[in-house]
Design brief:
This protein has four helices and eight strands, in the order ααββββββββαα. By secondary structure, it is α+β, with helices and mostly antiparallel strands. The strands form two sheets. A four-stranded antiparallel sheet has the order 1-8-3-6. The chain has a four-stranded antiparallel sheet with strand order 2-7-4-5, with no helix packed on it. A hairpin with an 8-residue loop joins strand 4 and strand 5. The longest helix is centred in the C-terminal third of the chain and has 23 residues. The two termini are 25 Å apart.
């Protein structure tokens, strides 16, 4: 999978919590230089409850499932190509509250906090747009959790 396929997946995902970033072609290419391509097999864990890693993942191909953390009472959520997960790690320093596993073979692109901080220094306008879009995903997911009776809000 090439990076352009990820861009198309992100731009075409039509769900409420989509990563709605407004970048043109050159800005996407710049942003892509800060991402690391990774592959996962079914059952592989991207994020584990309690992990402290500060990485946001962009799903290029495949499907992931999110299992709520211990005692959260939340529901299993599925994410497909174009979705993001781990967006909360750009905003807070703390343990993840859910497990995220590959359901199918996956290609994801990882944005580690250290690389995001480099992006902030070198291309602040792009970094602000990425942060704005990640914040939009986070707010949408929080609202969805708050609007479900007896559901705990899970920040991946």
């Amino acid at each position: 999978m090439v990076f352009e396929e990820l861009v198309r997946a992100v731009q075409s995902l039509n769900v409420e919590d989509a990563f709605r970033v407004e970048l043109d072609g050159p800005a996407w290419r710049t942003f892509g230089n800060y991402l690391v391509r990774m592959e996962f097999r079914p059952g592989d864990r991207l994020i584990g409850e309690g992990d402290l890693e500060r990485t946001m993942f962009f799903i290029g191909q495949g499907t992931a499932q999110i299992f709520p953390g211990t005692g959260s009472g939340g529901r299993v959520v599925m994410l497909r190509s174009g979705a993001v997960v781990g967006e909360a790690s750009l905003f807070r320093d703390g343990p993840h509250t859910a497990n995220v596993e590959a359901m199918t073979p996956m290609v994801v692109w990882a944005l580690r906090l250290t690389r995001f901080e480099e992006l902030v220094q070198r291309s602040p306008a792009i970094a602000i747009e990425v942060l704005r879009a990640a914040g939009g995903v986070l707010v949408c997911r929080m609202r969805a959790g708050l609007n479900k009776p007896n559901a705990a809000v899970t920040l991946f």
